[in-house]
Amino acid sequence: MNAPLRGYSLGFIQSMLTDESGRASGWFQDLELRSAFQPTFSLPQKHAMGFEASLRAVDPKGNPVSPETLFGPVQNYAETAMLDMLSTTIHVRNFFSRRPSHGVLFINLHPEVFLDFDNSAGFLTSLFGHYEVAPHKVMIDIPGSLLEHERLDDAITCYRSIGCLIAVDDFGVDNANLDSLWRATPAIVKIDRSVIADAMKRERTRRSLPRAVSLLHEMGTLVLMEGLESKDQAMLAIDVDADFGSGYFFGPHVDGVTEFSEPHDLLNNLWTSYRQQHASLRPDERVTRVSLENETLHSSQASGLRKASPADIARYREQRHPYLAAIQNLAAKVRSGATLESSSDAFLGLEGASRCFLLDDSGRNIGADIFSASPPARQSADFYSVVSVDKSDWSRRDFFRRAINEPEVVQATRQYCSLTGYLHCVTFSMATKAKNGKPVVICGDVDWSTHARTR
What we know:
Elements: H1 10-14, E1 17-20, E2 23-28, E3 31-42, E4 47-58, E5 64-65, H2 67-70, H3 77-96, E6 104-108, H4 111-115, H5 117-130, E7 138-143, H6 152-161, E8 165-171, H7 178-184, E9 188-191, H8 193-199, H9 203-218, E10 222-225, H10 231-239, E11 244-245, H11 264-277, H12 285-288, H13 300-305, H14 310-335, H15 340-343, H16 345-348, E12 353-360, E13 370-371, H17 398-405, E14 411-412, E15 425-433, E16 439-447
Parallel strand pairs: 4-6, 6-7, 7-8, 8-9, 9-10, 10-11
Antiparallel strand pairs: 1-2, 2-3, 3-4, 3-11, 4-5, 12-13, 12-16, 14-15, 15-16
Helix pairs in contact: 8-9, 10-11
């Protein structure tokens, strides 16, 4: 298949490429177009999970040309579409020919090209097929300005049908209407960099952020904080429970992904500073679940997440009993010296159970996670497995903090969107002591969508 985009086939677009030392660039009029990539980090896993592609253009004299100049007011849609597909082709070619396939590529489409989904999706299908790219490794960013567009739902459905993931870009907090976000059901919401900058200056915004992130998690989306430029901003992103972070604090853009090296020391030092300065100050989950009545985040759907009838609550408590008992039984075995792997069968045999994992008293993983042999089907992308690390840090999460603050009592979270791809995850946890006397926290994840939707 070689689908045309308003007359431009993949073959025609590729004719505008040049290749030097394995790196592709493109030519548009008299401008040279190149790729640059900014890493996006899974904050708990302290590791890059993907890269956002940016376009770099230079004129014949070597002067940079801004994307705003390139993609200015659209007077000729055909030219805009050609430029957008050319830049996307450059990014896909450079990323997937030079990077192990488990990385996620974030791409931006011009709003008009995004909404021309019948043509754009056909071109992307040809592009992915040519470079042997798994479409679920590509995340398309939707500008926040399109959330109210009448064609948005159809566009999202189309791009999802070819396998792409969806993110909402430049999302603000003040006066945000979440009903449109609810309909879009993105895998990731990117909090605009202006929000984090404002939170560093205004206490009101700083107080709102944890509640906003908590609500987004309950709505079934993960959260990325963009534009982190300082250690304090990065620690704030951790403290408000963001899943991902990006920005110049972690390092500059790279021209090629093979030039990127993980900033292990920087991320480890960041988490050490966070635990020393912030962990004891962060409000727990019950504080972030305050009433929405006076919130600036408006959504009739989201408001329903925080309401439950007495009958719903009673049913939920009854449904939890087998999981509470299984975690208690697992803890007893760990106290006696058994391994997590040999002790997890009873919990993982329960309906919806997906994994068990063990943390030390600082919130860091001990050993490998134990997964169910027959896990429930995931409803979203599994970003957790994108990053293969065994030293994740969960000290900011409520399932850890509540367990450590109340040892020998099983805790249960509300439903939230998990990095493992479950939109209605409930984590059961319990702090106890291993046979050697060291404190540990035993955790188990359950996909609660297999139960009644009581949140």
